[in-house]
Amino acid sequence: MRKSTAFFVLFLCVSSPFALAENWAHWRGPTGNGTGGNATPPIKWTSTENIKWKVAIPGRGISSPVIWENRVFVTASAPQNGGAPNALTNHEFKVYCFDRSNGKEIWQKVATIATPHQKTHDTNGFASASPCTDGKHVYAHFGSRGLYCYTLDGELKWKRDDFGQMQTLNGFGEGSSPTLEGDKILVPWDHNGPSALYALNKLTGSTIWKMDRDEPTGWATPLVTEHAGRKQIIMNGQNFARSYDLESGKELWRCTGQTKRPVASPVAGNGLVYVGSGFQGAFIGAFRLDGTGDIKGSDKVVWTIDHDAPDISSLLLTSGRLYFHKGKSGSLSCVDAVTGKPHFVAQRIEGVDSTYASPMAANGHVYVTGRSGITAVIKDADQLAIVSTNDVGETVSATPAPVDNELFLRGENHLFCIAESKSRE
Questions:
Q1: How far apart are CA 115 and CA 106, in angstroms?
Q2: Per the structure, how many domains does the chain have?
Q3: What is the pTM of this model?
Q4: Nearest 5°: phi and psi at 424?
């Protein structure tokens, strides 16, 4: 490396507080497993203490924030003329960009104005899918209202609003988030109608391939993992957990066992992928990635669990352990990821209940958040050990995002940046 180049790199690292950030570009983080890499977020806060900043966002806070260097992105929808966040009236579907250092709005864009064609659950909104970014563009998926691609400065590059209208089970609403991988953005489209998985060119929005799916409504997000040099897309589904080839969309393998209307997204590691659901039943399966066809009853199914599986929140894989809630409760289980043998099962965590947010891990700790607004921080260990219990004072349905020494938490009404006071500039 030339001296001038080395000096320039050194200058960037010293002058920018975010130069070494391990960005949180997707709602499950850089690995898709819910882990925060080298992040060291706070383990204690209140609604007033260790709050670096908070900013009000209209509508209902369902989608999770994503962070790229000095920018924080969130999506929202709110009735144009006020009223309930789930009212069947004209809504503005928006993308927000905030300055990470102080919470000031850099830009906001109205992607579209539309009246939802179908109601949503009382606890849901109409902008439930989390955005994602590759550091050049940010993608906001509003389901039946379309997918929108912006530059990081808020310039609209393309949109796709021709997917049709979802018809979700019981009018529970939409919410599957897209996933970026290489030159593709993967768009899940499972509903009580013609379901499919799309792979679009992330620069143009054009369809690379579309794979029809014989699946009813589901809310899971695609996970991309690699085996033997081939990247696979893992999808949860009511009928089957499935794997697709990233390049062609061809189905590689499938396994039955999931429960009705799956929401939890898969995680992968240890040469295995883990898929689970917990509504009107319970199932978690650990699958080898080298299967073909229907793998039920084969040695490609390494282990299964038929109790205490998660409903809304997704699995967490960290440090060789798999964590998951029981249904929507705050009861937490932890098993060995390789063998499925339990470390602890359905342990109640006081104050954490009705879990929508997925558990997250960083710096030797696991963060579990209930809709009460309480986040319990526990040790990432074989035995349950609560380190702290923290409350932002409002409902939380979104998954926390750790970056560097900060934690970004989307509440029902506000976006919070949590940081220890001594670490602030």
A1: 27
A2: 1
A3: 0.94
A4: -75, 155
